[in-house]
Amino acid sequence: MQRSSGWDLDSLQREWAHEEMQHLVLEYFAGTLDYDMHKVVEEHLSHCGACREFMVFLRRLHSALVALDADRHNTCVHNPVEGRV
Ligand SMILES: [Zn+2]
């Protein structure tokens, strides 16, 4: 039995599952998962460093967006153009 060293179906499927998982992590982050899926993602996060990093990335992105939004809000308040209306 010979195995080509380039790729094998097992790892390919694992990668795919992992990609799928990151979609779930997005939903997990958004809080749109039902209880069962929530558990599945939590379980995955507990042993997958890559998805935990992805989660950290999402948190950072989220807080960056919130900060950006707050900034925009501030500039609106102090925007002279707005003041003329
Ligand atoms: Zn993962």
Question: Main traits of this protein?
Answer:
85 residues, 0% strand, binds zinc ion, mainly alpha, 81% helix
Question: In summary, what is this structure?
Answer:
This protein is an all-alpha fold and 85 residues long. It is built from 4 helices and no strands. Helix 1 (9-30) crosses helix 2.
Structure report:
- By secondary structure, the chain is mainly alpha-helical.
- It has one domain.
- Helix content is 81%, strand content 0%.
- It contains 4 helices and no strands.
- The chain has helices at residues 9-30, 35-47, 49-77, 80-84.
- Helix 1 crosses helix 2 (35-47), helix 1 (9-30) runs parallel beside helix 3 and helix 2 (35-47) crosses helix 3 (49-77).
- The longest helix has 29 residues, at 49-77.
- It is elongated and about 55 Å long.
- It starts with 8 loop residues before the first helix and ends with a helix.
- The mean pLDDT is 80.
- Residues 18, 21, 44, 48, 50-51 line the site of zinc ion.
